[in-house]
């Protein structure tokens, strides 16, 4: 690990200013991702701007929806009574992530900004366009078992690793950010990027912009389920995951919000599937057809072909569990 400066920010404005002043600086929150990346030589910030003293730890509910401060630990958000009762999908997704110890340190803002777990991104002896633009993607011809089946490019086939973000994508969250030029709100669907020719960019956040909170609108969903399929029951990233929220009355789906994790460079929202199941009665056949629609257009690589079958099964199970 290289030497770096360490400063504590006392306001969002000063944090953003410090970040812009030194382009090689980075914000640090829980440090559970950033410190690992620094230790492994994947990133080498000249200065760390510690944002932990900022007043971004509130969870509040208004008639318009829920707001969660960027510095709320993942475990606190998951255990919050309002989150558990009114946004159970989010609580389930948070609890599926990492381990209890990590969830105590990991913040909501840091979770959104965490980087891919592609093994080639972590292996500094191998080419990786995300780590070193222009060097190539080792995963395309390599061991790509964990990799994307949607939205990838020849430049990068990594997936976004977050569980929480899959629920936030399904629930139409908005990311609140502040920078030196003011504040703005970014719809969750527009926050993370597909790799295209710039896989080094994970998000549309501008340099110096700080995530201050995440807002989730009020909703009418009365059923929810987050299904995560992984190699181990704890401490493992999703092979595929499915977040489902449904509004069901008398066995009829009145509206649906569905997203997948582990399949793309960003949480993958299944708009066509949502439209397909809306207004239809719950049945095994409906969910089977929905799963086939979800996998239309998937592109696999040598080692991740199993994700088609697994993805379909996961969608059927998540829809079945959510609606029962
Ligand atoms: C062994 C292990 C297993 C894990 N398993 C899972 C899992 O199964 N599912 C899952 O979802 N996650 C998993 N994680 C990832 C974990 O959830 C993230 O490391 C964590 O959420 C990052 O939050 P943090 O506060 O520690 O971020 P940090 O490490 O402090 O920061 C991460 C990045 O976010 C930026 N950042 C932080 N806060 C802000 C902000 N407010 N505004 C702008 N940028 C910001 C930092 O500059 C940095 O680039 C795992 C991590 C580990 C180490």
What descriptors fit this protein?
globular; single chain; 13 helices; alpha+beta; Uridine Diphospho-n-acetylenolpyruvylglucosamine Reductase, domain 2; Enolase-like, domain 1; 324 residues; binds flavin-adenine dinucleotide
The tally of strands reads 12
Structural class: alpha+beta
Largest sheet: 5 strands, antiparallel
The dominant shape is: globular
Work out the strand percent. 15-25%
| The CATH top-level class label of the domain at 223-323 | Alpha Beta
Specify the CATH homologous superfamily of the domain at 223-323: CO dehydrogenase flavoprotein, C-terminal domain
Helix content: 25-40%
Within the largest sheet, what's the order of strands? Answer: 4-5-8-6-7
The topology string of helices and strands comes to: EHEHEEEHHHHHHHEEHEEEEEHHH
How many angstroms separate the termini? 51 Å
- CATH architecture title of the domain at 223-323: 2-Layer Sandwich
Low-pLDDT parts are none
Average pLDDT value?
97
Unique bound compounds = flavin-adenine dinucleotide
The oligomeric state of the chains shown is single chain
């Amino acid at each position: 690990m290289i030497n770096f400066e360490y400063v504590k920010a006392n306001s969002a404005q000063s944090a953003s200013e410090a970040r812009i002043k030194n382009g090689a600086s980075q914000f640090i929150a829980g440090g559970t991702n950033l410190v690992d990346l620094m230790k492994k030589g994947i990133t080498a910030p000249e200065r760390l701007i510690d944002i932990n003293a900022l007043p971004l730890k509130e969870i509040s509910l208004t008639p318009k929806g829920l707001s969660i401060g960027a510095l709320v630990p993942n475990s606190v958000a998951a255990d919050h009574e309002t989150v558990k009762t009114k946004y159970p999908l989010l609580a389930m997704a948070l609890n599926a992530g990492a381990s209890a110890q990590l969830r105590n340190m990991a913040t909501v803002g840091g979770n959104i900004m965490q980087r891919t777990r592609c093994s080639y991104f972590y292996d500094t002896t191998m080419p990786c366009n995300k780590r070193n633009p222009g060097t190539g993607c080792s995963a395309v011809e390599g061991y790509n078992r964990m990799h994307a089946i949607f939205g990838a490019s020849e430049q990068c086939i990594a997936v976004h690793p977050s569980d929480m973000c899959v629920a936030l994508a399904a629930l139409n969250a908005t990311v609140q950010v502040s920078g030196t030029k003011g504040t703005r709100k970014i719809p969750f669907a527009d926050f993370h990027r597909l790799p295209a020719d710039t896989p080094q960019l994970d998000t549309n956040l501008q340099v110096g912009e700080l995530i201050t909170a995440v807002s989730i609108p009020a909703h009418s969903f009365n059923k929810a389920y987050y299904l995560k399929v992984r190699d181990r029951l704890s401490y493992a990233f999703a092979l595929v995951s499915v977040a489902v929220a449904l509004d069901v009355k008398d066995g009829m789906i009145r509206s649906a919000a569905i997203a997948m994790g582990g399949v793309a460079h960003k949480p993958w929202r299944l708009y066509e599937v949502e439209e397909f199941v809306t207004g239809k009665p719950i049945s095994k056949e409906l969910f089977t057809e929905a799963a086939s629609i979800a996998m239309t257009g998937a592109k696999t690589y040598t080692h991740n072909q199993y994700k088609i079958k697994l993805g379909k099964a996961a969608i059927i199970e998540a829809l079945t569990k959510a609606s029962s």
